[in-house]
Design brief:
The protein has 271 residues and is mostly helical. The chain is built from 16 helices and no strands.
């Protein structure tokens, strides 16, 4: 598709008129019309303004697309992941993980991932499967992977969780207080300072960030993507070092560092 067609499609997807786009950019609607007819192309400044208005990358407007790609919100079935985690928990005799699976599924019932129809439980199950795939079969780690969001998102308390104190402590460390622009830096500094002292919590948080980075393209606004990139660059090198300094997690540290930094580089190029 041409640049003009990209602009038209994005405008119509957002249910905007040419006049509304023109008003937002401080130009005439005839200029917008001429772009969409491919008579003229917007200059760099207008491309940036359009990307902000449509909440997309500049490249998604400026690049001429010959054929759109099909995209996926999920790769694996959450039901299959649930079975895999439960089977692993039984085989390795992991009582906390076994109880955490069903508890997490029930707690997140009806919730969806941002801007999608994907059941939220896909996310914690993905973390647990990611850990198992890296050879980490630790009962508290897997249980906390499954339960890491239930206090923030489901109104549960630590005392509600059907796991031991070590797993509860990991969930406590991974639960972040609500922030606003005024207190965000203070809260995040304290939050990550607590996590870095516990290699297991650091490992889970990096697994969490890996999965969240993969969903940024459709789950977050352009401004939120920018903020997540900056947050990841500021706090996650120290978390990765904490994981690397723990001998049994050396291989996981290498993989997580590669995944996080590769994903960040991709987003930076597309932004």
């Amino acid at each position: 598709m041409s640049i003009g067609q990209n602009i038209k499609n994005l405008r119509e997807e957002r249910k905007l008129t040419q006049e509304q786009v023109a008003e937002s950019l401080g130009i005439s609607f005839q200029a917008v019309s001429s772009w969409e007819r491919d008579e003229y192309k917007p200059d760099t400044d207008k491309l940036i303004r359009l990307s902000e208005l449509f909440d997309v990358s500049v490249s998604s407007i400026a690049e001429e697309k010959h054929k759109p790609f099909k995209t996926k919100e999920t790769i694996y079935s959450w039901e299959h992941m649930k079975t895999y985690v439960k089977t692993t928990a039984r085989n390795f005799k992991l009582p906390n993980t076994l109880k955490a699976v069903d508890y997490a599924v029930e707690a997140h019932e009806g919730q969806k991932r941002k801007r999608s129809n994907t059941p939220y439980i896909y996310h914690p199950l993905n973390l647990a499967c990611h850990a198992i795939a890296m050879g980490i079969v630790d009962d508290e780690i897997l249980a906390a992977c499954l339960l890491h969001d239930v206090i923030e998102d489901c109104g549960k308390t630590l005392n509600d969780l059907p796991v031991n104190d070590d797993a509860k402590e990991l969930v406590r460390l991974l639960t972040c207080a609500k922030t606003n622009p005024e207190n965000r830096k203070e809260i995040l500094d304290a939050y990550y300072a607590g996590i870095i002292k516990n290699p297991k919590a650091a490992l889970i948080k990096c697994l969490d960030r890996c999965n969240n980075l993969t969903t940024m393209s459709w789950g977050l606004s352009r401004e939120r993507i920018y903020r997540m990139i900056k947050e990841t660059e500021e706090y996650y090198p120290a978390l990765l070092d904490a994981i690397k300094d723990t001998t049994e997690y050396n291989n996981a540290a290498w993989l997580l560092k590669y995944q996080i930094e590769s994903m960040l580089d991709i987003y930076k190029r597309l932004m």
